[in-house]
Amino acid sequence: MRRGQGEGLETPVSLLRPLLPRWALVADMDPRFANPEALPWQERAIVAAAVESRRREFAAGRMLARRLLQSLGFEGPLNRTRDGTPAWPPGIVGSISHCATLAAAAVCRSGNCAGLGIDVDIRQPLSSEIAMRILTSDEAYWTASCEANADAGILVFCAKEAFYKAIYPLTRQVIEFNSVNITPAGKGFSAELLINVGPFRRGDVLPGRWNTSQSHVAAAVAIDRAMLAEF
Description:
By secondary structure, this protein is of the alpha+beta class. The chain is 29% helix and 25% strand. It contains six helices and nine strands, in the order E-E-H-H-E-E-E-H-H-H-E-E-E-E-H. The protein has helices at residues 41-46, 52-71, 128-134, 137-145, 152-171, 225-229; strands at 9-10, 25-29, 92-98, 103-109, 115-122, 180-185, 188-193, 205-212, 216-223. The strands form two sheets. It has a five-stranded antiparallel beta sheet. A hairpin with a 4-residue loop joins strand 3 and strand 4. The longest helix has 20 residues, at 52-71.
């Protein structure tokens, strides 16, 4: 993984950039290079009691998000809402994701996007216990049939996380993993809701895209304004 200039930033983003429209700004970095002590005190306080690895992952996500926000004219710390999600500035939609070896952020102006969700993870097979908990029967059948792709399960998991992050600001409701069904579609996937939640109804389908590298997987879902009006 290449290190960019300043705070370990890496540009361009190899995994996420192809997954989102050009109006979305994206960045990523290795969180092991992040310095939690460099965060504004408001952000440091959020993870003050966390273990070092968690603090570094959090710091990387916040550093990336603030760097992208600065390019849109926003300064200051990125606080959190009561439910723990980032408190994006008015007029901004964004998403942050991180794992032990990769952190990423994506932001855009709300005029372009009603919901934005990204997820990154280490490329590895899902344990059978986790697979049983998160996969629908259709997803389990597809992942089991992917003999050439032993980590298809982590792609589905990543897609579900990205989908959830995209719709949560519009629903403010927690849903279970088996409340959405992921189906491969072209270069990405379709996410079909199996329940009614917020402005969405059972059977509504949102498109997403995913990508893999040798060591990581990534997924992204962007809900544009025109798409939301259809629901």
